[in-house]
Automatic annotation (TrEMBL):
<feature type="region of interest" description="Disordered">
    <location>
        <begin position="1"/>
        <end position="21"/>
    </location>
</feature>
<dbReference type="GO" id="GO:0015935">
    <property type="term" value="C:small ribosomal subunit"/>
</dbReference>
<dbReference type="InterPro" id="IPR005712">
    <property type="entry name" value="Ribosomal_uS5_bac-type"/>
</dbReference>
<dbReference type="Pfam" id="PF00333">
    <property type="entry name" value="Ribosomal_S5"/>
</dbReference>
<dbReference type="GO" id="GO:0009507">
    <property type="term" value="C:chloroplast"/>
</dbReference>
<comment type="subunit">
    <text>Part of the 30S ribosomal subunit. Contacts protein S4.</text>
</comment>
<dbReference type="InterPro" id="IPR005324">
    <property type="entry name" value="Ribosomal_uS5_C"/>
</dbReference>
<feature type="domain" description="S5 DRBM">
    <location>
        <begin position="26"/>
        <end position="89"/>
    </location>
</feature>
<dbReference type="GO" id="GO:0019843">
    <property type="term" value="F:rRNA binding"/>
</dbReference>
<comment type="similarity">
    <text>Belongs to the universal ribosomal protein uS5 family.</text>
</comment>
<dbReference type="InterPro" id="IPR013810">
    <property type="entry name" value="Ribosomal_uS5_N"/>
</dbReference>
<dbReference type="Pfam" id="PF03719">
    <property type="entry name" value="Ribosomal_S5_C"/>
</dbReference>
<keyword id="KW-0934">Plastid</keyword>
<dbReference type="GO" id="GO:0003735">
    <property type="term" value="F:structural constituent of ribosome"/>
</dbReference>
<dbReference type="InterPro" id="IPR020568">
    <property type="entry name" value="Ribosomal_Su5_D2-typ_SF"/>
</dbReference>
<comment type="function">
    <text>With S4 and S12 plays an important role in translational accuracy.</text>
</comment>
<dbReference type="InterPro" id="IPR014721">
    <property type="entry name" value="Ribsml_uS5_D2-typ_fold_subgr"/>
</dbReference>
């Protein structure tokens, strides 16, 4: 009887350790931490706002924003927000995007184009961080309009949401791929 319990507990431990291998490893990259203040009756209340991009470098990416009284809690809350806002995007064999795409958020506009293999990520600021964390290796991107880091990150997410594959387009048009 006692040996059966030991076997069951050992199996549970093994199943727990094996489940950790199946979970995707997420990479978190901090875009910016701002010190913000709120004017109240008793004076100014200081807090911190964190903007974090989270992804698995294999086609999943999300942007999270959160405020807290200290930097560590703001980062943790932003990371949790990023997990809630994950999107999945199609990546080609050459680790690029399938086609040209634009995204807009607020006054920010982001244009992305696929690039040849080996060219790297040609982008700046928050757009570059979003593309690297998403796992896109060969792309050309340009941000137009405002230089707001949060809006540029969200505009790049909007652009990546608009990506489609050939299979999705053929299904939508009722065509057969040969």
């Amino acid at each position: 009887m006692n040996s059966d319990l030991k076997k069951i507990n050992k199996a549970k431990k093994n199943s727990r350790s094996n489940s950790n291998f199946n979970k995707p490893k997420f990479v978190e990259r901090l875009i910016k931490i701002n010190r913000v203040s709120k004017v109240t009756k008793g004076g100014k209340k200081l807090s911190f706002r964190a903007i974090v991009v989270i992804g698995d470098e294999n086609g999943k990416v999300g942007v999270g924003v959160a405020k807290a009284d200290d930097v560590v809690n703001a980062f943790k809350k932003a990371k949790a927000d990023g997990h809630k806002n994950l999107i999945e995007l199609p990546i080609t064999k050459s680790l690029s995007i399938p086609h040209n795409v634009t995204g807009q958020f607020g006054a920010c506009k982001v244009i992305m184009r696929p690039s040849i293999e080996g060219s790297g990520v040609i982008a700046g600021g928050a757009v570059r961080i979003v593309l690297e964390v998403a796992g896109v290796k060969n792309v050309i991107a340009k941000q137009l309009g405002s230089n707001n880091l949060l809006n540029n990150a969200r505009a790049s997410i909007c652009a990546l949401k608009n990506l489609t594959t050939k299979a999705q387009v053929s299904k939508k048009r009722d065509l057969n791929l040969t």
